[in-house]
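Standup notes, protein team

Yesterday: finished cleaning the Dietzia cinnamea set.
Today: Bifunctional hydroxymethylpyrimidine kinase/phosphomethylpyrimidine kinase structure.
Blockers: none.

Input for Bifunctional hydroxymethylpyrimidine kinase/phosphomethylpyrimidine kinase:
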Amino acid sequence: MADRVRAPRVLCIAGTDPSGGAGLLADVKAVAAMGGYGMGAVTAVTVQNTVGVTGVHAVPPETVIAQLDAVAEDVVIDAVKIGMLGEAGLVEAVGDWLRRRRPPHVVLDPVMVATTGGQLASDDAAHRLRDLVPLADLVTPNVPELAVLCGETSATDIETIVGQAELVHEQTGCAVLATTGDLEDGSAEDVLVETEGGRRTTLRLPFVRVDTPHTHGTGCSLSSALATARVGVPDWEAAYRRVRPWMDGALHGGLALEVGRGSGPLDHTWFLHR
């Protein structure tokens, strides 16, 4: 037991999904799948399933911050993943908490709209998320979220994605992983822009598209897995290369889960079901 590697302790900040595919439940599954110990602060209770979102009930900002402080005062936090915040006041409160606590390896998934189409952030909150990006170490927007962060229209090709990701990195100093599974031109490359040792790099990271309708919680799961994988590796590229094979397996595994009638979840523990 003396040689056992300690599990990364990852605090996830997100809303709930009672069907288990997205939000905080997906976060802790992804953290565990990557060998971490997941913790969670609830930002909102949603009423949703694989078909859609029918209600969002926000947790008061002071209660969210109290949850975060309760963990931080007792547990050494190795990484933080931020997901659904929902309201502008909570975005500001979480920003203040990050400045006060300064946890390592902060990943921001700028959640605005659910895979099933329900709005998960007010317009004001979506706008204020831009101010939160400089406090994170990595931001993981999909195509429409990247457009909001850089103040442009949604990209329709990979070259525009590259330009927008570089712009967000230049404006905020935060590493950017732009995911492109929803890109209209069918490209199969994620785009990572980061600066290490004063040198900026832009990487186009190819992946194999999985033909599946079951993508519920993909963004939540990816960002939580990256936060976990980043502990103990030198950069975000190394974390991504560890996470991507797991994500591909989870997408394939979701085809056999048979959870729900809509856009179903990933199989976070697909490697146990082979």
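Follow-up from PR in the comments: The two ends are 28 Å apart (CA to CA).
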